[in-house]
Design brief:
Layout lengths: L1 H4 L9 H10 L10 H5 L3 E7 L13 H4 L3 H18 L3 E7 L7 E3 L5 H9 L10 H15 L2 H4 L2 E5 L8 H8 L4
């Protein structure tokens, strides 16, 4: 959402500058919040693709964009979401995935913030086979297992450069009973 609300002048900056500002939460944005949204805790469950394709050169794009490191952008987006959750006293769940899912990192307060930052930034981007189905199923299972009302209204955000191949019937079945 921060990228969507960024002022157009921000997009004129070089990719490295834009990424740094995004990661630091310093993008100039136009934002209006309703009074009711300010009182709700932000709950984000981020699934980040850590396959090797996230760091590959993008052939077929204009030269300035071929160096675009999807992995760095994925890390920047994940860190922005983490920072927002902490600022709003929210919860942040983070899990890397490729052919299988990595361990979950859960942040409910400032004490686990550094651990989450380390988890986001420690991606090696070596996996193969972007398995979004398993990652999404695991996120829904985590949400159901915790049983916490705050987590049940979590936004599940998938950060990937891959194409999603998801069996909608399986996901609908796993979502039963969740808002």
């Amino acid at each position: 959402r921060e990228i969507q609300k960024a002022k157009s002048v921000e997009f004129a900056a070089p990719v490295e500058v834009f990424s740094k500002k995004l990661g630091d939460g310093r993008l100039s944005i136009n934002c209006v919040q309703s009074p009711e949204s300010k009182s709700k805790k932000q709950v984000a469950y981020v699934l980040m693709d850590d396959t090797a394709s996230m760091v590959s050169v993008r052939k077929g794009l204009p030269p300035i964009f071929q160096r675009l490191h999807a992995g760095a952008m994925a890390q920047a987006v994940s860190l922005v979401l983490l920072r927002r959750a902490i600022k709003k006293n929210g919860w942040f769940y983070f899990r890397k995935f490729h052919g299988s899912c990595g361990p979950a990192t859960i942040v409910k307060d400032e004490t686990s913030y550094k651990e989450a930052c380390d988890a986001v930034m420690s991606s090696l981007f070596r996996g193969n086979d972007t398995n979004i189905q398993e990652a999404l199923s695991q996120a829904l299972a985590d949400i159901r297992a915790v049983g916490e009302a705050n987590l049940k209204r979590a936004d599940i955000i998938i950060v990937t450069d891959g194409q999603a191949v998801v069996n909608e019937d399986v996901i609908k079945e796993k979502r039963k009973g969740l808002p």
